[in-house]
Predict the 3D structure of the following.
Amino acid sequence: MEEGDLAAGKSIAAERGAWIVFEDEAGQSMTPPRARPWGRIGCTPVVRVRGRGSGRVSMAGMACYRPGQRSRLIYSIREYRGRKDEPKGFMWRDFCDLVVRARIQLGGPIVLV
């Protein structure tokens, strides 16, 4: 750090003309939210929620950057309805397919972060 070359040797993406890709995933339950309402002392309020709340939604996305190019967002969505033998979230093959799809769409090498 004293010489000022903190990131020396960290230019693999620049040397290869590669895209820098940041990957992340998130999930959200589709059950309706419930609030805690105010009520009189001794009278517990009852909050009715319509619907059973079926499953969840999962999303995996990649933010892709390369100098001189516009940035790209590549994503995939999976909906889980609670059926038998249905995957609840993303598996390693789904991420592999997403990386392959990103490589094809970007048309060049990628550095996955």
Summary: The CA atoms of residues 74 and 101 lie 9 Å apart. The two ends are 23 Å apart (CA to CA). The longest strand covers residues 19-29.
